[in-house]
Amino acid sequence: MIQWVEQRIVSANVIAGIGYVLLALLGYSIAHFEHKVSPIWPPMGLLLVAVYYGRCRLLPGIFLGVVATQLIGDKGILT
């Protein structure tokens, strides 16, 4: 039973991280001009929902999503 719960938490973290990256790329795509200022930041909604429903259990996935977004994002390290 405990192993099933741990697998569920890990898979929820992976989904949350991937969702954060995809929503961040969507946020970058609606940004204005060269300053890349987005009027809304869609990943913030995912973060709020993850913290509300998952409490602290989903924060590692969100953190990895933020790091991945910074690495592959519009003004990130890899670009």
Structure, explained:
With about 80 residues, this protein is an all-alpha fold. It contains three helices and no strands. It has helices at about 1-30, 40-55, 60-70. Helix 1 (about 1-30) packs antiparallel against helix 2 (about 40-55) and helix 1 (about 1-30) runs parallel beside helix 3 (about 60-70). The longest helix has 28 residues, at about 1-30. The model has no long low-confidence stretch (mean pLDDT about 80).
Quick gist of this model?
The chain is an all-alpha fold. Helices cover 70% and strands 0% of the residues. The protein has three helices and no strands.
General form:
elongated
Name the helix and strand elements from N-terminus to C-terminus, one letter apiece. Answer: HHH
Q: List low-confidence stretches.
A: none
| Beta strands, count | 0
Radius of gyration: 14 Å
Helix percentage: 55-70%
**Mean pLDDT over the full residue set:** 81
Strand % is: under 5%
Question: What is the helix tally?
Answer: 3
Distance between the termini: 44 Å
Q: How would you classify the helix and strand content by structural class?
A: mainly alpha
Biggest sheet descriptor:
none
Task: Looking at this protein, list some descriptive labels.
79 residues; mainly alpha; elongated
Helix-strand blueprint:
Layout: H1 2-29, H2 42-54, H3 59-72
Helix pairs in contact: 1-2, 1-3
